[in-house]
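To: structure desk
From: M.T.
Subject: fold request, one chain
Message: Could you run this one when you get a chance? Sequence is below, nothing fancy, just the single chain.
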Amino acid sequence: MNNQMNKMNLEYRFFLGGADAEMCRIAQILTQAGVDFVDSGLGWGAKASQYGKEAFEDAVKDGLIPVLVELVLDCELPEKAIIIDHHGAAANLPPSLIQVSDLIGHLLTRNDQVIAANDAGWYPGLLGMCDIPGMGKLYPPATPAEMLAVRAADANLSPVMVAEIDRALAAPVEMLGVMRVIRMTHSKTGMIGDRLAIAAIMTGVIKPVDFPSYVVFSGDGEVNFSGRGDVAAALNTAFTGGWAGGAGLGNPEGSAFWGGYPEQEKVEAFLREHFA
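Reply: Done. Structure tokens follow.
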């Protein structure tokens, strides 16, 4: 059986998208399983064209099936190509880590489950408050040590960036309806979410919608929203070309995220009109 599985895995060549905790774990799994993959260390929003259609065609010429993991499909692909993603229209699918594991026959470890819960469910997922597609609720919920480890894996901020986050959170609180508005120079917003979520956990949140909704307007032109799933879905529909995901995307009682580079004034006006 193992020999048959290994033979099957040799049929694929994976092309990995933007590096985060989930993608790094996928690379580890593929390495351990001896599966061919290419990882160019791309950032969030990675595109298929950054590898180039020739790379996918070469995989087919080598007798392999190209598997694209979380890549924006902006170039021609071979007919046999397999697409793995769980963002935007694919938000109802299992996290990419689970899809990859299913494809190559990898059995999820506890660490894999924690990473998948974080990637698709954020803190509500880690605390077992919401179903993760393909896995269900994380049980038992993540321990403080597990949460710290998986959240720290995505954090790589300079002291200057951390100081800017400190300044932004210490500024007078600005609200837009139930959403907190945060304005800062850079767009590394993970620590913003961590601090707001941990504060909410300390007050005893019991369901995803209890976590704070917030929107970050960054000086580099990026906008990021985290919170109610219906707000994230509405932003994704109104402002195309960005990114969105989370197990609760579209659900007013769920938690999701959205981001992109639309005109910030228009985003603020949209939120004020529809959700303030």
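Reply (cont.): The chain has ten helices and ten strands. Let me know if you need anything else for the meeting.
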